[in-house]
Amino acid sequence: MMKLYIFFFIFMLVSSLSGGVYWYYTSTQATIALLRENNVKLKSAAEMLQATVDNMAANQALNEELNRELTANLQKATGKLDSLRKRFSQIDIVREAQTDPDGFAIRINRAIDRLREELRDETTTIVDPDPTDIE
After folding, report:
1. pLDDT number for residue 130
2. Closest CA to 91 of 41, 99, 75, 44
3. Strand locations in 8-124, DSSP E?
4. What's the gap between Cα 106 and its chain centre?
5. Cα 7 from Cα 1, distance rounded (Å)
6. Mapped to the 3 state alphabet, what secondary structure does 56-122 carry?
């Protein structure tokens, strides 16, 4: 009978150890699978972050170039404005309108026409015809 108890005890011990080893193995495999999945997500996020950083660097360079162009254009416009202010301070509009009203009106109309043309040229876009629409 003692042999039966010892056999039963050893059987239970081996079964318990086998169950523990099986549980440890399956738990470890599940953890490894989860870690692999997280690693793939991290790699994807890192690649997306790097692409975003590269895109931002390219945009920064473009913005700096555009800013330089705008600054240059602003300086030109400021120079033109200063020259116009100087010219307006030299002109006595009332006296010129009283001495030669017809010539004054003609000059004003020409200036307005030039201003309209400049505004139209600056605000209209040139649309290239579609090459497939050739008749």
Report:
1. 60
2. 99
3. none
4. 50
5. 10
6. HHHHHHHHHHHHHHHHHHHHHHHHHHHHHHHHHHHCCHHHHHHHCHHHHHHHHHHHHHHHHHHHHHH
Measured in residues, the chain has a length of 135
Extract the tokens encoding 49: 């972050």
CA dist., res. 113 & res. 119, Å (int): 10
* Contacts by 93-102, CB closer than 8 A, 24 or more apart: none
Label residues 65-77 b or e (16+ Cβ within 10 Å = b): eeeeeeeeeeeee
User: Could you tell me where the beta strands, DSSP code E, fall in the chain?
Assistant: none
What per-residue string of b and e applies to 92-126 under the rule 16 or more CB within 10 Å gives b?
eeeeeeeeeeeeeeeeeeeeeeeeeeeeeeeeeee
End-to-end C-alpha distance for the chain, whole angstroms = 108
What is the model's pLDDT at position 133?
57
**46: its two tokens:** 């890192």
pTM above 0.85, yes or no: no
Q: Give CA separation, 4 vs 7, 8, 9, 10, 11, in Å.
A: 5, 6, 8, 10, 10
User: Which residues of the chain, if any, have pLDDT below 50?
Assistant: none
